[in-house]
Design goal:
By secondary structure, the protein is mainly beta. It has one helix spanning 4-15, and strands at residues 23-31, 40-48, 54-61, 64-75, 78-83, 87-89, 94-97, 102-109, 118-125, 130-138. It has a single domain, classed as PCu(A)C copper chaperone (Immunoglobulin-like), CATH 2.60.40.1890. Helices cover 8% and strands 51% of the residues. β4 and β5 (78-83) form a beta hairpin. The chain is globular and about 45 Å long.
């Protein structure tokens, strides 16, 4: 009996070298909001530990229909959320996703996650590879001093 799938999978595994994920995702957390909300925000620190510039072009989150990169910016005297299409990270560079700045918008939630739960957050690069971390759900930002300075 002919079974092409195992041959295809084996061929792909042999053809593609195993490459360590250049992105390190740390200090991930998601803001808990009232259960009637269908949108919340995710925060984290991402560091490019690789030798080449990495371009983050998207995001995903468990329980969310969509996850998008956004940045809060002061424009014309008001704070506005602006989508971020591409976030390049040079080798050794870090980006902090934090309240009032760069963040992930988690949209079309199946339900609002509760404090104490976890949400899987993933950043997606232009080569399609995700870099993920489990994010603690909490009402407020971690205590001062917990954040990395970048």
């Amino acid at each position: 009996m002919f079974r092409p799938l195992p041959l295809i999978v084996l061929g792909a595994a042999l053809a593609a070298p195993t490459v360590a994920d250049p992105l390190a995702v740390e200090d991930a957390w998601v803001r808990a909001l009232p259960p009637t909300q269908s949108v919340t925000a995710g925060y984290l620190v991402v560091t490019n530990r690789g030798d080449d510039t990495v371009r983050i072009v998207g995001a995903a989150a468990s329980g969310a229909g969509r996850a998008e990169l956004h940045e809060s910016r002061a424009e014309d005297g008001a704070m506005r959320m602006v989508p971020v299409a591409v976030l390049p990270l040079a080798p050794g560079e870090s980006a902090s996703f934090e309240p009032g700045g760069l963040h992930l918008m988690l949209k079309d939630l199946e339900r609002m996650p509760a404090p104490g739960e976890t949400v899987r957050l993933c950043l997606i690069t232009d080569d399609g590879e995700p870099s993920c971390a489990d994010a603690a759900v909490r009402r407020d930002a971690p205590a001062a001093g917990h954040h990395h300075e970048h």
